[in-house]
Amino acid sequence: MTSAARSGSGPVVWAAIIAVTCLLLLVFHKILWLVVPCMLALIIYYALYPATQYLVYHGMSRDAAAAANIVVFLLIVAVAAAIAVPQIASHIVDIQASVEPYIAGGLRLTQHSLQALERSWSVLANAHLAEAARQRFDASGGSAAEHVETIVTGVAAWTPSLLLAPFLAFYFLKDGQRFTRFLARAVPNAFFERTLYLMHEVDRTLRAYFIGLMKLTVLDTFTLAFGLWLLGLPNPFALGLICAVLAWIPYVGSILGGAIVVLVAATDFPDQPSVAYLSVALFIVARLLDDFLYMPLTIGKSLHMHPLVTVLMIFAGGAVAGIPGLMLVLPVLGVVAVCGETIGKVVTDPRLTARHRHARLLRQRQASADLAS
Amino acid sequence: MELNPFRRRNSTPRMERLRALSLFAALSSGELAIVDGLLHEREFLKDEVIFDEGEDGQAIYIVLDGSVLICRQGESDAVLATVAAGGFFGDLALLENLPRAAQARAAENARLAVFFRDDFLGLMETHGIIASKISLQLARNMGRRLRDATLGDAAARRHL
Prior knowledge:
Chain A is mostly helical. Chain A has one domain.
């Protein structure tokens, strides 16, 4: 079944696909504690699958190969944590001192920009926009320590759930093929080839999406890091990485990443607002590169989806399930679309249904062959 | 007690059975283990249709037990070929994404191993040696069929 054949699904199938996607997002939103580790486990699974196959090929049992890979992965994570945690802890101590100047710098830049706009536009001046924004910021502000406390509490609450990820990934690696065959055994012979195709497409879509996401993150990190380095901002690689990871959340993540970089630029170069404006320009260029070059080369290939449907579904995902909905909508839509289109074709194929009826008749006859008097 | 995780595999009856199939005859134990993970087993009753002529071809079928008739659609008496245990059919689907050229129907109760086309294409990416060994067996089978078709059975037997 080619992708050209897939495009033949009718409006009823697509309405069902969109409805099921929204319903799943609603359900996933309620069980995020399970969905997030499952997503991370899938990423780990797709990253470690080639290494597992390599070990099996060289004579290791699948169980041992899966265990060895997960142990090596956990060791790498443990070493990375051992290096990073003391550094983060030492920064947390003076986070009040280090974060507040950036927030103040951002507010200063916003104030200056709004005052410049008020000077140019009398309507804005009459509305006292700059003063209103200052009062709003003052009202919503709190100490950085309060925000850190919220973040630390959140991390502590999520840790047990996140520890599920390597555990799940181990079983995906160890029993993934067995599970696929177990599912396939439940399918009648008449629908078997189509179902194999469906399972393969679901696997291909998820694999392409998650691997595409990783590639996109690397490309975004290096593009932004290079641009920020040219602008002379401190820690360009770390800033680029943070922004690339935030970009996993469509639209909102990119804006948040851009805001962080503009805050840093406004604070470290208070007398040079051009650096902040150039940072905004850099983000617009990165966004264009993302939309027209990187996305089509990485994630775009995986979904075979019309751009209008993708954009509308991102908004629908956000409306139904908030930030998690924005993050989950594309992979969920990709998988539901593959399932919906294939199931739609299978159940409406009269020949396959007739073959299934014939096979059932043969089985009934065989089962009752010695019962006829 | 031997602790080497990369130990020589103990050959299981299933592995021996797979090795006895002409398609996998050239594979080592490690290679068979990879292929084994990709195979699905299906059971068909006598007269049950396995695939129809003109259907999208997604997999190759290997006969483990029983036998299968290859015939024109709707002409089950006009048999084009009979595939016995150890043989395979539907291999054109593995090489070309074309519709099935004929109908396959179980001549008697049969147990088949199914090798999905995209799994084979995946092997080409990840395990080129395994894929090339299987491709060689497929090419040999095609050559044999071509020789039989052009020279006839008797001439083929004389290796003319």
